[in-house]
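Workshop exercise sheet. Pairs work together: one partner reads the sequence aloud, the other fills in the structure field after running the prediction. Swap roles for the next sheet.
Pair: D.N. / O.F.
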Amino acid sequence: MLKTLAKEIKQYKVASIITPLFMILEVICEMIIPRLMSSIVDDGVQKGDMNHIYGMAGLMVLVAVVSLAAGIGGGVFGAKASTGFAKNLRESMFKNIQKFSFKEIDKYSTAGLVTRLTTDVTNVQNAYQMILRMFVRSPMSLIIAMIMAFMIDGRIASVYLVAVIFLATGLGILMVLAMKHFRRLFEKYDKLNESVQENVSSIRVVKAYVREDYEKEKFNEASGAIYKLGLAAEKVLSFNNPIMIFTINACILIISWLGAHFIVAETLTTGDLLALLNYCMNILFSLMMLSMVFVMLTMSAASAKRISEVLEQESSIVNPEKPVMEVGNGDIVFKNVNFKYHDDGENYVLSDLNVNIKSGQTIGVIGGTGTGKTTFVSLISRFYDVNEGEVLVGGKNVREYDLDVLRDNVAMVLQKNELFTGTILDNLRWGDEKATEEDCIKAAKIAQAHDFVSSFPDGYNTKIEQGGTNVSGGQKQRLCIARALLKKPKILILDDSTSAVDTATDSKIRTGFRTELPDMTKIIISQRISSVMDADQIIVIEDGTFSAIGTHEELLKSNEMYASLYEAQTSGSGDFDEAAKGGV
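Structure field:
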């Protein structure tokens, strides 16, 4: 884990090295000042030597200025190193997430990834800054102050040693008790972020169903869990300051009492006692700072582990050593394909899939909810890899292709259509960033999007709000289809992508496919028979396998489920799941 995180320091190594050096210089200056004060008292004030007082005072000012400059330098470079480290962590995590296959995306929740990129990185950033500054400064200050105290008087310095042992033991116990609460605390942030994300992204649904109170209760539950764990941890840590103050005051009292006796006995000077009291404060405050560092490290340990999990996660789908860089045509072949989401899963999600699709054909896919239709087409783009068998595109196994080349040639319009903030042109050019406005208009016309886009005052320069909330579901689907067409793919997959479009517009889209894209392989997943009935082949999926393959006429005669669905829909009632229950 530490090795993984350390790699992200990268260009901030120099700042990470300079910061501790500044801290060491600051500590050295701070340790010199008490000795100078002692000299002023013993050799200047008591002897009435003003020249000595002025000389030592000037030296003290110089040392203080150097100490100030070192402190400022440590703060500046420490901030640069820690914030740069955090920036690199976020960038590396984000880049690695982009490489994830659907298998890895399924493993991590969206809310969990957001927490790792925000809260967890902030925790690690704060811990790293404290490591560079306080984790170096505090031990150095403690050790040097202890050495200087023993050099002045070993008898009084022994009081420090006892205080250090007492304080270290007390703070150690507190940290162990607080650690278990902090570990659980950061796990709860995922739940809180998940609640916020779902509520904000689905606010229209929440209001439509008048579920505000339910969402408030869910949020309060997640927030309350964080409150309870945070409170429990802070209750433990609340003993930190009282123990520290008690130890400091006890030391001051004991040292003052012993010092007074030793001064009377003329075995200790007043200046030395003053220096010892200064070193006392340095030692004890160094311990306090160390305790804060360890608390921060405890808090960030869970965050560091969660970050390293994302950084170390390797995609299960990678490019071959010598990838094929061109897809010959839109032929698709499934040979004895079996697939399950998890290698250790008991049952296959898809089993015994065999089909041969010729380039330029239109293929319809019909099946009930949860039968594996989306997973089936996801294997073509290699969003998942098959467990057994093989998938061929253009006569070659999909594992042989460069991933970008394969996915550029297999355009997929997903069930959940997403538009991004920007103009309509910006969104369409996701398909081809070099596409001209004429190219975009042509694709929009095929997708039956041109008319409604032209009706907007700003046309293709109309701004799309976040999530595409200022266009209807059907308009969003047609823009996503146009975006996919701009890729000029060999294979186009529509995963129930016209469900929000009226049947007349749906028919025009399919007509455009036939006339404008005769050489492109089209796979249309739909719940409507009318959307697939003119396809060259229709695949019926049941329970993760192909129960029937044929033309519309063939399936009406040979497949009872398909026939009952057709009857239900043409008679004006029922969707696929209802027909399946009644007809099978």
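Discussion prompt: The chain has 22 helices and twelve strands. What would you look at next?
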